[in-house]
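Section 3.1 - Work completed
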Amino acid sequence: MTSTILETTGLSREFRGFVAVNSVDLKVQTGTIHALIGPNGAGKTTCFNLLTKFLSPTRGTISFKGRDITGLKPAEVARLGLIRSFQISAVFGHMTALENVRVALQRARGTSFDFWRSDELLHQYNERARALLEDVGLTEFVDTQASQLSYGRKRALEIATTLALDPEMMLLDEPTAGMTHDDVERVVALIRRIRTGRTILMVEHNLSVVEGLCDTITVLTRGRILAEGDYATVSRNPEVVAAYLGHFDG
């Protein structure tokens, strides 16, 4: 029987009277890929910010693996195994792909990232860093500066650095945003590869990506949950079709 890994109850966030997230009750099941979708301004990114504690809720609670995390800080949530990647790629452009992943792996030593440590000490992370780069299809770019990678490969590198933190659950904020068709296919294949043993919650605008990847889809509009289910279910919901102005093919 599948268990709930992440749950919100009455989750709400207001900004000076504007309700961005309104009484959201969300349940994400362990081992699934769950999507948050909705028109622009639906509250998806605000919801992500609440879940990862970059924002505090006005009302409501958040629990992860049965533990109330509503009052925790972002770093505390990350240490529990709930790790987020961002819509804008966040890698160190002046460092190689290997060096980027190696910095993330330093977390195994403690809480600090020691850029100034000697090469000899840092080389202990090379084998694991190379394995992670292989996992995301970047073997041939190990020694390439991140700034020289294509946008899609930068996103793959960011996912590799996220995996270096050994997350039990990953939150991916629009992982295919701004990508070419080839890059989209590459990242979709990557997400399929890394899902084993993990739970993934993602915000995604590309509905063909959602259709092909996700077990459950939650549709937000104006900060509220409009519908939930698999792609076939939500794509045939008249309210969802209306919210997307006919963007669904179902």
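Second construct:
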Amino acid sequence: MDSKCFDLSGRVALVTGASSGFGEHFTRVLAAAGARVVAGARREDRLHRLVDDIAAAGGAALAVAMDVTDAASVAAAFAAAEAKFGTVDLLVNNAGVAAPGTLHKTAEADWDWVVDTNLKGAWLVAAEAARRMLAARRGGAIVNIASVLGMATSRGHGVYSATKAGVIQLTKHMALELAGKNIRVNAICPGYFKTEMNDEYFDSAAGQAYIAATPGGRLGRMEEMDGPLLLLASDAGSFINGALLPVDGGHLVMSI
């Protein structure tokens, strides 16, 4: 395969949850691949540092304040992206939160926060992206960031797992409806990587013991997400649609 298939020159990419973790990393990867990138998140101060780094490396980037649970905020972010770079034709739907807790110790407010961000937010952003791609009469790609916890589950992660299972089903639904419009929709299902969301746990003895017991015996490295992301975002994955791609070191196939 020609390596140019992974080139994103001429594409306009929007990444949600871009202020840290996967979102920040994905924004840098897409910019390095040639895309003009729009970094969206609520913590706008962090976004400006990210955009400055990308510009210093010769890339093109824009920071936009964005609350994925608010339709008006989502629409405003896409409008700002269009004004600067043109229609967004690559969405990385990454924003997500967690509130670990067992069933009987999870508060209604925790449920609302996680479901609104992870599931409603993914739907609002994807729907806005699709509407604008269709209005511009151009194709594109949507990459939803789900989780292996949407395909399996573990104690204390019921609400998070439910939202990521919803993102997986939403991915299939969107892929079916948009396939004839030249818009591909796929999902990456990461296993365990160290981010702000979980670093305290994985620095603990319990967290280290848990990871040591998985098939890979280690956490994923951020750069190990680059290939899967670029495959689904670029022309290299032009006939991949509605797919769920676990990136988990074999965690999902561990023996019972």
